[in-house]
Structure formats: structure tokens, C-alpha cells
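Check out a protein:
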Amino acid sequence: MVKVYTRGGDGGKTALIGGERRLKNDLRIEAYGTVDEAGAFIGQAMSFLDARRDDDMITLLLEVSQMLWDVGADLAAPYDEQGRYTYKTPTDAANRLEPYIDRYKEEADAITKFVLRAGSTASATLHVACTVVRRAERRTVALMEKETIHKPTLQYLNRLSDLLFVLARAVNARDERHDVLYEHSSNVF
């Protein structure tokens, strides 16, 4: 069995794919670390879903969780001009989420205003995952300003936040809970 601890990070650095060591608050580490955090919240949300009723969502979220590991790996790999690293996130990964966004959006009532991030435990956790994915996207944009990234990772994160938002609303609808609209919102949708 492989040891969980290596002591390699005791000085505040960690290794990227390829072996380069960087400080743990480096933009690249922040980006893929936030992706990892989002995956944890997605896992937590799955634990709150009804295994029978929400099997379709659980299956989809398991696929998303697998893809997030690919996204994280791609963000952990500095751009290599020699092409020694093969990116895992497919160029059409974001597009693959769009039919699901369209499908689950139809389960909830149409909205015209911003929605408070609330509802059932599963829904609220999906909302948390959505906001963490949005933070991962911001961290990835900050990284992109300094270094070359594999663009499909950013596109996937952008689309994934939309998917998690509509899934949160669909779960509330399945639980026969209405979204709570932000009172001071003008019509935005």
C-alpha cells in the first residue's frame, strides 16, 4: 500500500504533473484545488439525493465527478511545448453538458428573477457546489492571465456551474419546493 504522507509538502510546496514544485498558494494549485473542492461538494450533494427518484442525477453527477478529475489533472499540468502531456479534458466537454442543462431546466418553474440559494439539503448543497465551481472558474481565469491553460477546462467549468444551478432547482421541484426569489431583483431572465 502506498503511504498517504510523503513529507514532500512540509515546506509549503507541492509537485505538479511533470515534477515541477510550486508553492501551495500558486495560481495553478489554487485552480485545481478549487476543482477538487467542488468535486467534494458534488459528492456530498449526491449523498443527499434520493437513490431511486434521483438515479438519473446521481449517474450524471458521477460522470461529472470523473470529468472534474480530468479537469484538475489538466490544470495540474503546466503547458508543455513539446507535447509530452496529453490533456484529458475533451474539447467538446462543455458542449456535452448542454443537453442536460436544457433537460433539467424544464423540471423547474420558469423564473424571471434571481433565486436564493436554498431549498432541500440536496438542492442547497448543489448550489454550494455551483458557487465553488464558479470560484474554480475565477481561479482558472487568473491562471490563464499568467500561463497557458488547456481552454476546454475553463469552458467545462463555465458550463458546469450552469448545470449545477439547474440541477439544484430541479431537485427543489422534485421535492415540491418552490424557489425563493430574490425580492429586490428586477427581471433578469
User: Anything to note?
Assistant: Strands lie at 13-15, 21-23. Residues 19-80+89-174 form a domain with the Hypothetical Protein Ta1238; Chain: A; fold (CATH 1.20.1200.10). The chain has a mean pLDDT of 95. The CA atoms of residues 124 and 159 lie 19 Å apart.
